[in-house]
Predict the structure.
Amino acid sequence: MAEILKVQNLSRHFDLGGTTVKALDDVTLGLEEGKILGVVGESGSGKSTLAKLVMALDRPTSGEVLLDGQNLFAMSPRQLCAARRNFQMVFQDPYSSLDPRQTVGTIVAEPLHLDPGAPKGADRREMVGALLEDVGLSVGDLTRYPHEFSGGQRQRIAIARALITKPRLLVADEATSALDLTVQKQILELILKLRAEHGVSVLFITHNIGVVDEICDEVAVMQHGKLVETGAARAVLDHPQQEYTRQLLSAEPTLEVIGRKGRRVASR
Amino acid sequence: MMLSVQDLRVSFAREYGDPVEVIHGISVDLEKGETLGIVGESGSGKSVLSLATMGLLPRTARASGKILLDGEDILTMSERQLCRVRGRKIGMIFQEPMTALNPSMRVGAQIAEGLRLNRALSRRDARAEALRLLEMVQIPRAAERIDSFPHEMSGGQRQRVGIAIALALEPELLIADEPTTALDVTVQAEVLGILDELVSELGISLVLISHDLGVIARIADRTLVMYRGDEMEQGETEQVLRRPSHEYTRKLISALPGRVRASLEMSDG
């Protein structure tokens, strides 16, 4: 199957007066059309730097990001702008990523300026309304403001905004980390549904390996800017080859032993 | 009995219309040295319950019922009495250590602040005590880190400083409201481990509030499940997780990642 996204020997170094921080160090990975790739690692592992580069919001020290075979960093500003409708992003904090002074209708329709052929007027409103229903909101929400919504609903608005240009790649950076577990589950289900209906490929960045297990086909484990392990999610999670992956897995809460008393007995 | 909440109701006055009741009669007890987990999603009233226990409800709130701390009712105490309770008898750990700590004050001074005010320690003694507390929460190279500012520390270290501040005055009851929610999974496990160890060692009662049943299951002896200001169920954590008696608890369990759920089923014997 064709690779929608290819990251090739990508590095991003920061010079901090004498010392160099290798935020991203020679990372190579690929995402096949219609798949969900989870990038998992702790704070400082370079996963958000990766997301920024894939979104062309930053320039690499070396290496390439190919979207549909096109190198993002070899494009002219005009070409890049035109290409942007094909890759969109959902951010972590649904409270800071939506403009509080704009209505939901305006927020969701905003990326349409990337598409010169986008419908206008009533057609545009209809298009935005249909998408809101797609993500589990309603047409009536078009004229409301972000503060009227809960965290989970706001994240649905952010997802609708990311999908309005019918992108082929969605980059989600810790998109469910600020949400309650019950709401997280709803959002994960929504992403799976949208993938099934629209065939969108997803780069899903998270520190939570449990979430990877829920929705990802492939997984890339990162630590200190380097790729530690990559492969099919099932295989990597069930049979981790690297010590660091095992560490991440064992840090996850489990319910084998419940409560302190249970653990004291178990450790005896 | 360390803490006894009896038929607590909390309502908030509104500019227009009748007050809104957000906690509809909660009763729960906590023994000395015991850990109580309170679990529920946003809007379940778990944070309002913890604020009420600290006597920190905003002015627009009205509370009825009783919150007995060592037999004394928090709800009828004067602000002066409450000031003697907060910090000394009840310590609190907040969710977001970056906003809970003072960004312009070195962490050692922040830990020492309460010691100097409440125990009238000298500057030197308070600093020595702050260092001991930093070592207790396992901050590496504590002697150097004591002069760090919060922004120079990682999220996990900041939250350990938060724990050190809460434990500085040796409270008998500790309230931790989503103490690990802002942290990575690996750091979360470390911080929970440290918290659990200290609370057990010092024999402190702990109220642990979280939306994550996985966190609650780790250290809570008993668990209260809340939804929209009502109790759904309470009991031994083991009982609540393995044999939930309420539909909502089953929903919370089903929201856990599949791997975690599998570990629950596997171990059910």
User: Anything to note?
Assistant: Residues 8 and 119 of chain A are 36 Å apart (CA to CA).
